[in-house]
User: Which sequence fits this backbone?
């Protein structure tokens, strides 16, 4: 297995223009500054970027067009990508995009993957340098649900004789925030039954999540679970919703010798 690195970003909540504000905050400007920081420090050190969902909010033709323009997407590709972006020193750079609960799957596909037919659930896998990346979709609602289609896809993907990284939008374990943990899937145990099965558990290097707008590192039965602060407005780990005035994060993930490690970078804006 050849060692490599990539970056995770998440929950951008882009609006109809870069100048438009949400809660007095420019989500477009913040994402641009994150991409600039990645471009300045890691453009030659990483193989790709993964965005783990909630690209826009609300989902509309205008917000998706703004996302395309901001990221500098000017080529077509088929699902699951990567798409090629051109922004802040990242020229023709590989980026994988997953939808979140705020994304409309039809519009998301039409704007970023016009060569593909829209799908109800973004369940895809690809292999990079001997590691399988499993993109799984918990659905288009804030509250996650493990659909039979996703359950079957995940079980089948993890039968491959490859080390695997599971990538999704919604979180997969309680993080100690009452209002946020209410969004966990009621049938979450079915997910963990697949992932911790003796025939698959040792293959799972880690799980990357978005949704919570919080950075954390947890584990379940020895499997690392990595959450990440939004490039837009972060939330505090409190029982009721509380936004923080705090800079965005991105995560640089390294895979070497079958081990996943990572480091968080904070971007001053």
Assistant:
């Amino acid at each position: 297995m050849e060692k490599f690195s990539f970056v995770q970003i998440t929950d951008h909540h882009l609006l109809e223009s870069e100048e438009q504000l949400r809660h007095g905050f420019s989500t477009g400007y913040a994402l641009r500054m994150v991409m600039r920081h990645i471009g300045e420090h890691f453009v030659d050190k990483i193989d790709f970027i993964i965005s783990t969902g909630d690209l826009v909010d609300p989902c509309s033709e205008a917000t998706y067009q703004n996302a395309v323009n901001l990221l500098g997407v000017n080529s077509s590709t088929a699902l699951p990508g990567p798409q090629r972006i051109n922004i802040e020193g990242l020229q023709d750079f590989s980026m994988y995009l997953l939808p979140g609960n705020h994304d409309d799957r039809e519009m998301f596909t039409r704007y970023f993957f016009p060569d593909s037919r829209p799908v109800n659930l973004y369940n895809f896998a690809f292999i990079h340098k001997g590691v399988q990346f499993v993109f799984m979709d918990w659905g288009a609602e804030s509250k996650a649900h493990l659909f039979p289609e996703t359950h079957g896809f995940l079980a089948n993907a993890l039968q491959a004789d490859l080390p695997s990284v599971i990538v999704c939008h919604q979180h997969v374990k309680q993080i100690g925030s009452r209002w946020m943990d209410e969004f966990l899937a009621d049938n979450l145990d079915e997910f963990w039954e697949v992932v911790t099965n003796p025939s698959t558990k040792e293959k799972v290097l880690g799980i990357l999540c978005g949704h919570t707008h919080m950075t954390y590192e947890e584990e379940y039965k020895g499997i690392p679970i990595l959450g990440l602060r939004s490039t837009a407005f972060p939330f505090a780990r409190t029982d009721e919703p509380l936004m923080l005035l705090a800079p965005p994060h991105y995560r640089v993930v390294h895979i070497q010798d079958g081990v996943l490690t990572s480091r968080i970078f904070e971007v001053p804006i």
Notes: The mean pLDDT is 97. The longest helix spans residues 27-42. The chain has one domain: 4-266. The two ends are 37 Å apart (CA to CA).
